[in-house]
Amino acid sequence: MTTAYSDHEFVSVKGFSASEMMNEAERYALKKISKRSGATLSLAILAGAFIGLAFLFYITVTTGNDSTNWGVNRLIGGFAFSMGLILIVIFEGELFTSTVLSSISWANNQVSISKLLSTWGKVYLGNFLGATLLVIMVTAAGLYQLDGGQWGLNALNIAQHKLHHTWLEAFTLGVLCNILVCTAIWLTFCSANPIVKAVMTMLPVAMFVSSGFEHSIANMFMVPLGIVIANFSPDTFWLGLGANAATYADLTFNNFIINNLIPVTLGNIVGGAVLVGLANWGIYRKQMQQPDMLSINTPVTIAKASKDSAMINSVKVKDLMNTNPIVLKASERTAQAIDTLLSNGITGAPVCDSQMQVVGFFSVHDAMVNLWCEDYLPDAKQVVGELMCDDVTALNAEESLVDVAEFLVMDKEKVFPVSPMGIATSFSNLSLKERVKEAKVSKPHILPVITNGRLVGVISRSDVLQALRPLYENEPLVEVAKAI
């Protein structure tokens, strides 16, 4: 969450720089641990099924391609498999290998180690249930008989190969895999556009799949599928292939758990939680706390508006803001948060962590939208973190009053429609004042104020208007600021 200012225009930036992506990663991690158990488990089951579907796609596109170049064949399969992570990102599923990025919240002292491991456990269980459910459906559908049984034979060979790694190999392949998976997730923090997010995940996933790296949740689907085919396929299946079921006698659940699932899971944790999550946290959080990096992590001090009166520019946000604002927590029950807003007569409040860093904004609008979506039967256990807006526009305490006022009422893209090169993109015969009045501006009514990355107050439209009110009587703004 941050803001930038260029040519007198406030812009909410999401993923503008590496440090901005770090801020987004922190919000992502906090969301993971703030969800209710039921929601976490349900989304984890969905994610487990999505990964299983991705492996089905992989098996299908790589079956019968013996004449194709080995690398090209695996690359095609890798791109097909990327469908799984794309679906999870778009549907906001809970995948164990990406949920381990919540280690960032532990590093920020936002969650205890027991709560962190509990969240991981719920997601891991849900992924297993989703993968298992898909194995049952695929087996019942007889997909292993496709292409004269070659589809099933391909699945058997893939599953068996996964059990022939040494412990060190399986662990290391798991580390390499989740470095790429979590890097793919990290790349999605640079944009809110779902198409961009989908494209960002494809190459890292294609690389880990085509290189044979090991993904614990994918293996929860692939190896059990191989075990089921090896042990429950009819004799006609083996006769049609001219193969012997005894060749795949090592496909057992005991071998799977001991020789693959345990070392790969541990490797996935190290690769994602440590080498991506905590490593990036250590690099960027430390840099963002240094003076030369504060301009990246905090709202940029905006340029002075070109006004004739120096008095107007002398009034700052810090002179007007409420320094004791109502603050909510992501883990707070929605009902409790609504009561807090209503009892204080406000329409919204910033959501902060234990270090007073803004992680979101919760408003009455968010609550009412949720009520409508839930047919006015909301979950009583719902928490603020599930509803809050995590793309928040904030101000610096040193911003001038006139620039804040301009931000609240102006839509520069509609009033001055020009390209980055200064070339007009549309024309209008309306006057400047008419264009300003016609432009429909949707800006926050309450804005958090941040200094050095932490909340120091809030300012509302009413605060701004109250400070500007004396202009109608030609009263000096400096005197108003002193009075406030």
Structural summary, described in words:
This protein is mainly α and 484 residues long. 59% of the residues lie in helices and 7% in strands. The protein contains 23 helices and seven strands. It has helices at 18-34, 37-62, 70-91, 96-99, 103-107, 113-141, 150-162, 167-187, 194-210, 216-232, 235-241, 253-288, 294-297, 310-314, 317-320, 334-343, 364-373, 384-387, 401-409, 412-415, 432-438, 461-468, 477-483, and strands spanning 3-5, 10-12, 348-352, 358-363, 395-396, 446-451, 454-460. Strands 5-6-7 form a three-stranded mixed β-sheet. It has a two-stranded antiparallel ribbon with strand order 1-2. A hairpin with a 5-residue loop joins strand 3 and strand 4 (358-363). Helix 2 (37-62) runs antiparallel to helix 3. The protein is elongated, with a radius of gyration of 27 Å. Residues 1-15 and 290-310 have low confidence and may be disordered.
Task: Summarize the structure in short.
59% of the residues lie in helices and 7% in strands. With 484 residues, it is mainly α.
How many angstroms separate the termini? 28 Å
Number of helices: 23
Low-confidence stretches: 1-15, 290-310
Number of strands: 7
